[in-house]
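Collaborator request log, item 7. Partner lab (contact: R.S.) asked for a structural prediction of Ribonuclease P protein subunit p30 to inform their binding assays.
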Amino acid sequence: MAVFVDLNITNCKDVKKLQNMIEMAAHLGYSTVAINHVFEFESKKMEIGKPISTKELFSTLPTVQGKSIPIKILTRLTIIASDPSHCNVLRSTSPSTRLYDIVAVFPKTEKLFHAACTSIDVDLICINVTEKAPFFFRRPPINAAIQRGIFFELVYTPAIKDSTLRRYTISNALSLMQVCKGKNIIISSGAERALEMRGPYDIATLGLLFGLTEGVAKAAVSTNCRSAVLHGETRKTAFGVVYTVKKTCLEEEEAEPVCKKAKKS
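Returned to partner:
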């Protein structure tokens, strides 16, 4: 049985509304959700706060429909920015980002999109679906992102709110699919209310409109999401690894000073 995941439930100050969204996700069959803390980079002095604690929301976690297991709640940080210098806070060694299970960037410019694909320490790159894409998707940076294990996120709530937003969502998604060929795609809700959420099989069907095949559309709400979560775990733990290689006797002899070799002989 597939394990379904929604990696984008919008954090809000209304705790009751947030609880309702997580309860709805469990009722719809999602085994894991991520509460998305969004920070728009307006100044370099911006401070990233701590993620919300699960204990603040529930004393007992909601049970996933049809599985009789508690839903798993992750934390996610999304930075909305326009310049690569704004994303210095996204370094893997940053104490702020290490508090979050998933780190994403919403690039407003092609320059930042390219940097996110090739060098910035993130797990997800958010694709703008509420307006016409401000730049063309190019194959080299997208291939670089795929090789690095970074995923591209499409949110579906704008597509069910308004016909104009639906047109932008489908158009931008199809443009992305022409380049990435359906690889490393996840589909999330981006929900701000419980009523905006849809079941995973409905979302997989919606993925067909985004240019995905049936199997890839299902993976976009299941296996790809779990891979993105695993990428986040690796990002937090894999930095600072030191490799040691034992020298052979021949290497040690070659590295020995000539004067010592003369004394031995």
